[in-house]
Design brief:
It contains nine helices and five strands, in the order H-H-H-H-H-H-H-E-E-H-E-E-E-H. By secondary structure, the chain is mainly α. It is rod-shaped and about 185 Å long. It starts with a helix and ends with a helix.
Length: about 290
Amino acid sequence: MTSQKLEESLKQYEKIACELNEKRCEKDASKKELQIILKKHANNIEAFNSIFGKATQIEVEKLQSEQLMTKINRIKKCNFELLKYCAQLNEDVKQLKTKDEEWRESRWKDLQMKWSEWGPLEIAIFIGFTLKLNKNPMAHLYNILKKNNIDSRALLKMSKKDWMDIFELKIFLDACLLFDSFSHICNQYPSNSFSSSSSSSSSSSSPNSTQTQNTPKEYLCPLSNCIMKQPVIARNGITYDRTSIVSGAHQLPNNSSLFIDGQLWLIPNHAIEERIKTYLKSHKQQ
């Protein structure tokens, strides 16, 4: 009986040991499974934190973008206003430039018309305007003109080389430009102050010459200021009375351009002559 009970006890012990071993294995398996679950949970938490951080970053960037767009819109508005102001300013500058050019052109024309009265200052302005000089060279030219007492009468007697030497020009083309420009002005605006002798002789030789303030300027001789009897065109393109130009050609500025092989080059201006005749006839009838 005792051995039988012992065997039963051993069997129960083995059975319990086997069950305990199974429970231990189940426990280890559960422990491993729990570790895997915990690891996955930790990974999920980490992923959540990462996603939450990115979402927060996106919100921050979105807010920054909105603020940046607000600044950009303000800058665009300011730029638009600035462009509008610049356009208006540019238009004002253009108008001022146009007015300045018109004023300069008017003053320049007035200066040209009074070339016979030029002194050192006017001649310096003429040279500076023609050669596009700044103030310092013009001041130097003025000193040269004043020192040598050069006026418009003196300019009439100067050759291109004289222009270059007297005014210390380094380029001969500048001297040619000044010489030709002054000649053009003299021809464009003939001055009676340089032909007083021819005017007086013409007046004395033709006492019947008609002078009137109402006579069209194109009918008057630039030299005698009388109505032309025999209008002729000279090489400078100006129409004179034949008697006046023949007697006074040598007194005109740069008169060499009027001659060909020593002969005064003149062409009758029949159109003006006929108009003068018609004009005189109509005034006689009145």
